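Let us practice reading a record.
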Amino acid sequence: MDGVRRAERRKSMRYSLAFPICYRVLPRHGPPLAGEGTTSDISSAGLSFLSWEALPVGSHIEMVAEWPVEIAGRRALDLKMTGFVLRSGRGSVAVRVTSHKLSADTAAALPYRASA
């Protein structure tokens, strides 16, 4: 298909954004997994991020991204998301996002989040 571009199949526009993300995966079998990564791109329906470990495909995932906005010299918002792992491997994870919410105070409610 030289010279012919493939049609974009995504329904939501993706934005290239890189910021820290913490996650917790709840696999169907086995203990929960927690870790950190960096987002690659994001939309209202999906997200991809860089991670050191492969995550179980099909697993439910909870994520908190440090939204890149500061007020009075400190980070003011977190983007809390849930979804399902679609693909994982070679340091990259793709997630179908099923819910998202900007929040000013998620740190206390998320015990898996790394503390500074």
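A brief commentary: The longest strand covers residues 78-89.
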